[in-house]
Specification:
With about 240 residues, this protein is α/β, with parallel strands linked by helices. The protein has helices spanning about 45-55, 75, 95-110, 125-140, 155-165, 185-205, 225-240; strands at about 1-5, 20-25, 60-65, 80-85, 85, 120-125, 145-150, 175-180, 215-220.
């Protein structure tokens, strides 16, 4: 299931030849609608993007929500074998091909999407952020903007962090955020924040300055859609801002 949000006046006759930047977001069920969102809390993507467009903070853009597979979500978003959680047959390595060979052509055919990495973003939260990070590295040069909310960097013995240390072809802009109360356990909370700091250091060593990288360590914030909704305006403003 794809949930596609188009900006105001997309159908207006004077915009009939206009093409728009696009942001692909994982866990599409949680983006637009409380009725389908986890625990009844959504990201409020439609309201937030609409407001930022009308305030001329960001240009008109299209958002594509890609639903997860619910019961098989962990396998879908994990690129590596894992013992915590126990996933011995992950499917995440197939995700970049799924996105590029199925989702993106489908969307290009039906909507007026601007081409090029400067017009293409990908993102998500938790495991959805992990697979977004993996995809951005595996398909270097395709995505110019990456949104990483509370990424699950710890899985598979932090293999994604080891991969990132030697990677250099990063997207033009990366938004990276974490709360300090993600798990409710002090030791785990310290570790997830440190994981984000490790990723930040890798990005900085690769040359990403403050124009290309925004890191938010949100004091007291936990691991849920409500927190990601609160940070969404800053994320979009940084990634797509005029």
């Amino acid at each position: 299931m794809l949930r596609v949000w188009v900006p105001p006046r997309y159908e207006a006759p004077d915009n009939s030849t206009r093409h728009y930047p696009v942001l692909y977001l994982n866990d599409g069920q949680n983006l637009f609608d409380r009725a389908t969102a986890f625990a009844g809390v959504e990201w409020q993507v439609d309201e937030t993007v609409d407001r930022l467009i009308r305030q001329e903070v960001v240009p008109p853009l299209i958002v594509v929500g890609i639903d997860n597979t619910q019961g098989d979500r962990i396998r879908e978003y994990l690129p590596y074998r894992s013992f915590h959680p126990p996933v011995l047959r992950p499917q995440g390595k197939r995700y970049p091909d799924f996105l590029m060979n199925e989702v993106m052509p489908f969307v290009y055919e039906r909507y007026r999407i601007a081409r090029g990495p400067e017009n293409t973003g990908v993102g998500g939260s938790s495991l959805g952020a992990l697979i977004s990070l993996y995809t951005a590295m595996e398909r270097s040069g395709i995505f110019g903007k990456v949104l990483l909310e509370s990424p699950s960097l710890f899985v598979s013995n932090r293999r994604i962090l080891k991969y990132s240390r030697h990677f250099r072809q990063w997207p033009a802009k990366v938004f990276l955020a974490i709360g300090t109360r993600e798990s409710g356990r002090e030791d785990k909370d310290r570790q997830v924040v440190e994981d984000v700091r490790v990723l930040e250091r890798s990005l900085r060593r690769a040359g990403l300055d403050d124009r290309r990288l925004l890191v938010r360590i949100d004091e007291g914030a936990s691991h849920n859609e409500g927190e990601w909704a609160k940070r969404l305006p800053d994320a979009l403003s940084f990634l797509f801002g005029n």
